[in-house]
Write a structure and sequence with these properties.
- By secondary structure, this protein is of the alpha/beta class.
- It folds into two domains: 3-203, Rossmann fold (3-Layer(aba) Sandwich); 208-388 and 406-444, 3-Layer(aba) Sandwich (Rossmann fold), CATH 3.40.50.
- Helices cover 41% and strands 14% of the residues.
- The protein is built from 17 helices and 14 strands.
- The protein has a seven-stranded parallel beta sheet, sandwiched between helices.
- Helix 2 packs parallel to helix 3 and helix 6 (127-135) crosses helix 8 (161-169).
Length: 468
């Protein structure tokens, strides 16, 4: 179904056309018109399927009719995702008049206070910082029309259950609620019961399905071999941009520094960086100033760069959902991608479990060998030589005479190829060792939660539906 086939205002249609959106994704096709009709929605779809536009467009339709005061609240689990949602609002709402504020940690309080005083139409926020402002009575939600939680399963995994309870308590009972999640866990079902009325469940994936455009593989490897092998793969693979996932902040930082010392344009993204530093690295990655991003799972939430061709799982994630989220960074917008996982021998059962739960084939690959590296380097040499010839590079007559007198053309060609095809030396750097992933039975996580009895919890089970 095409965007031109749905009834939305002309200004939104104009922006969508400029962005290049034509065909709706399954989650968009199934949820946008339902949301515009005013129904509560529980949307289940994997990362990278266009969930953001699925709630941004219905909200913009409401704003076209009423843009006075704070009418819409969108929650996200990370700063990066919150900023991405704000960007999507501004892109799709380019020709529409509305105000939007993003409330996240790591940003100066005073600027946020000033923006909240103006009662922005849309607030996009992470839970912790929003709670800070709620505690100071800086927010007025009495006229709120829409409440959205994006990646609600990640909210609970990040331990935000108590904060979500506090936020829900200050919102009006009559509103439209839209929850989007990759998986529907017991915690998600609980918040659906607490916040939604007669919700429409829209499912386009199990949350563990993987993009068919992504070729998945793994390499059996020892911990101490990982860095050298990664360097070989980065030199071997033709790529536009790559994301490398490490399990910890320390791993991401050390690995990023190691790659820079080995001549790569790389940057690290993790939770210990302040917001300015994170924004700067993401901008450099999106602009192409760096083509390799090393990230942790949480920090990578919200990365939306279309030209990522490779994902490397330097460390395997503990949970299958994190695996699907990681490899969802590539193969976007119907482009092909490649995901390579480093797997220690004792982690093989974990790879098998991921294959079973995602119903995907992950093929085993061998570690790069000297012959494959030589072939790759030689190919790059010929490409450089061809480029030089096409550009018509000239050398002076004196240099030409010396070369002509000393070497035959065959000797000269062979020497140039040998010199250029030499493997660049590796700067050997020792990374702090990380433990292997332990395979365990998955159980629902028990988030910290206050007993809702006696706290004035609003009962949404009988609230009337008000459609605008």
């Amino acid at each position: 179904m095409k965007f031109t086939e749905i009834k939305i205002n002309d200004r939104t249609q104009k922006a969508i056309k400029e962005i290049g959106f034509v065909e709706m994704s399954p989650i968009q096709e199934k949820s946008i018109e339902v949301a515009i009709d005013g129904f509560d929605i529980v949307g289940q779809a994997q990362t990278g399927t266009g969930k953001t536009a699925a709630f941004v467009i219905p909200i913009l339709e409401r704003l076209a009719k009423d843009n006075k005061g704070t009418r819409h609240l969108v929650m996200a689990p990370t700063r990066e995702l919150a900023l991405q949602i704000e960007t999507e609002f501004k892109k799709i709402g380019k020709y529409q008049k509305f105000s939007i504020t993003t409330i996240v940690g790591g940003v100066d309080f005073s600027r946020q206070i000033r923006e909240l005083k103006n009662k922005p139409n849309v607030i996009v926020a992470t839970p912790g910082r929003l709670i800070d402002h709620i505690g100071k009575n800086r927010l007025d939600f009495k006229n709120l029309q829409t409440f959205v939680i994006d990646e609600v399963d990640e909210m609970f995994k990040n331990g935000f259950k108590e904060e979500i309870d506090q936020i829900v308590d200050v919102l009006p009972s009559i509103k439209q609620t839209m929850l989007f999640s990759a998986t529907i866990s017991p915690n998600v079902k609980k918040i659906v019961k607490e916040t939604c009325y007669d919700a429409k469940y829209i499912t386009v994936s199990s949350g563990k399905n993987v993009n068919k455009n992504v070729k998945q593989s793994y390499i059996i490897i020892k911990e101490e071999e990982k860095l050298d092998t990664l360097i070989d793969l980065l030199r071997l693979h033709e790529r536009e941009a790559a994301v490398i996932f490490g399990r910890t902040k320390r791993r991401a930082e050390e690995l990023g520094e190691a790659l820079v010392k080995n001549g790569f344009n790389a940057g690290s993204l993790h939770g210990d960086l302040d917001q300015k530093a994170r924004n700067r690295i993401l901008k450099r990655f999106k602009d192409g100033a760096i083509d390799i991003l090393v990230a942790t799972d949480v920090a990578a939430r919200g990365i939306d760069v279309q030209n990522i061709t490779h994902v490397y799982n330097f460390d395997l994630p503990q949970e299958t959902e994190f695996y699907t989220h990681r490899i969802g960074r590539t193969g976007r917008a119907n482009r092909s991608g490649s995901a390579i996982s480093f797997c220690r021998k004792e982690e093989l059962p974990h790879i098998e479990r991921i294959m079973k739960e995602t119903n995907a084939k992950i093929t085993r690959e061998q570690m790069p060998n000297p012959n494959s590296m030589d072939q790759a380097n030689t190919s790059k040499v010929f490409a450089k030589v061809e480029a030089l010839i096409e550009n018509g590079k000239e050398y002076d007559e004196k240099s030409a005479k010396i070369i002509h007198d000393c070497f035959t053309r065959k000797e000269l060609a062979e020497t140039i190829i040998k010199l250029l095809a030499q493997e660049a030396p590796k700067n050997t750097i020792k990374l702090t060792k990380e433990p292997a992933v332990r395979v365990r039975q998955q159980k629902p996580r028990n988030s910290r939660s206050r007993n809702s009895r006696g706290r004035g919890r609003k009962n949404h089970s009988r609230k009337p539906r008000v459609r605008n």
